[in-house]
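Quick one: co-fold with glycyl-adenosine-5'-phosphate.
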Amino acid sequence: MDLMEKITSLAKRRGFIFPGSEIYGGIQGFWDYGPLGVELKNNIKHEWWRTMVYNRNDVVGIDASIIMNPEVWKASGHLDSFTDPLVECKVCHQRVRADNKEAIEEHKESHKDEIIEWTESKLFNLMTEVFLGVTEPKQKAYLRGEITQGVFVNFQNIVYSTRIKIPFGIAQIGKAFRNEITPGNFTFRSREFEQMELEYFIKPEEKEVERVFEYWKEQRMNWYVGLGIKKVNLRFREHAVSEKAHYARKAEDIEYKSSFGWKEFEGVHYRGDWDLSRHKLIYKDPKTGEEYTPWVIETSGGVDRSLLFFLIDAYSEDKDRKILKLHPKLSPYKLAVFPLLANNKKLVEKARKIFAELRRNFYVAWDDRGNIGKRYFSQDEIGTPWCVTIDFQTLDDNTVTVRDRDTTRQERVSVDNLENYFHNKLVG
Ligand code: GAP
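Sure, here it is.
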């Protein structure tokens, strides 16, 4: 089994990610997050929001709607230019992204020795159409292809309601939809996915662009490293002119070295005044009265893609132990509580009490099945950083065993100090 197969299988078996609408044969490019997946996803989003909004004075958040007036997409250039090149195999009529070398190669291999030909490359728009209203003709609208435009169209509302001054940023997390030609590599390229984005507005000055661009590159790289992604698996890659999106004057990706090659984690883009000028929006400096169209540096990451890469990077095996070495801040459960024996009333009662106290502040798993070794293995596989065992000594001295996922070391900790102990580990 290769690494991706192991991850896909673990994700399904343990309730992280399921194929969308599976009982009806699935639907390509759509995925459902299970009980552990939704926790991991929420933790990623929470960490992003904490870093990008709560810990800063110059960023505010919004949550714009998914469907917008279609004029937005005309103005932003998405209806004309948000496209991917597509070719069709003349033998079996399967369509593949012309710029996706892997998919082209894979397709050739699927025909074995047969010589295949491709049609001319054509551009296909990625926007997903929806139809609103109940009577004909229905109003055509679009599911947003990037969450970004919701920020730009609210630019004035945000400036007026918050009095925030340039330079400042607007952060948002939300769903985006793209009619991807070749969804694949598990959730890596989906048709429905979540983005976490910052649009950072600056004065239109060349020297600022360079400084702010480099600043955000570093901030975003540090975020992934701080949450445990191994440095050797990360790099920056600048986009060639032909790769850049229609709005980008400069674009660099943070890439992850996955088992299917170096792949985009997140994009840092300099969008200039593309969007605000297309929406005819300006900024008025409250002190000087100067009016101008701000320039924008954007950081745009995928929640699903991050989740996938966090899983891949955290996965390890040690003899017959499978371990997800997720950063504790991301782990679905922070702790698991076990009574040493499930059939000892006193142990179970004490363990239940400790479980109830801990779960007031942490998401805690309870397990009383099988033996302790099996319970450890089961928690290791889903990334639970610490397991707390209530044993006979607990009944004597009110201490428990805390076992660390990564080192497997165990220590005795007083029940009275347990909450602080985990709090310090998670914050520190
Ligand atoms: N607002 C800019 C923007 O949308 P992008 O490079 O097209 O830029 C940003 O997308 C991020 O969104 C990507 O780095 C990736 O993490 C995520 N993303 C884009 N398309 C995706 C897809 N089809 N499936 C999953 N994630 C995707």
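If it helps, The chain has a mean pLDDT of 96.
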